[in-house]
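can u do me a favor
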């Protein structure tokens, strides 16, 4: 498995942040309208917009690149499809032809745990 210099675009994240910000402002405005008028339709629409915000936030969680911390590949970025959801330890090929073990920690990081064939 080789490592590529994969980065998620800041435009994608900025666009998602702008959409979430706009939707949350709309939810606040609709809730104020519901309070002032008593019209339940405002509360229903606000609930739908809040559900869209939750969906946007949850879908974006697994799209960023994994950052490699420590070891021979320190600072490298891995595409998200390199690491499976159930992966706890990942063995990567190093530039010198060997292998290095990395533990999957946090949401987007791989921490160096030693060369392949060595004890922890």
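np, heres the sequence
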């Amino acid at each position: 498995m080789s490592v590529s210099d994969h980065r998620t675009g800041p435009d994608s994240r900025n666009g998602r942040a702008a959409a979430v910000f706009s939707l949350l402002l709309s939810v606040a405005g609709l809730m104020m309208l519901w309070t002032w008028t008593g019209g339940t339709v405002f509360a229903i629409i606000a609930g739908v917009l809040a559900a869209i915000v939750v969906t946007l936030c949850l879908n974006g969680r697994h799209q960023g690149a994994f950052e490699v911390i420590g070891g021979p590949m320190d600072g490298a970025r891995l595409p998200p499809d390199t690491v499976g959801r159930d992966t706890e330890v990942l063995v990567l090929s190093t530039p010198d032809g060997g292998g290095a073990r990395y533990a999957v920690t946090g949401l987007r990081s791989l921490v160096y745990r030693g060369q392949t064939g060595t004890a922890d």
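Residues 1-8 have pLDDT under 50 and may be disordered. hope that helps!!
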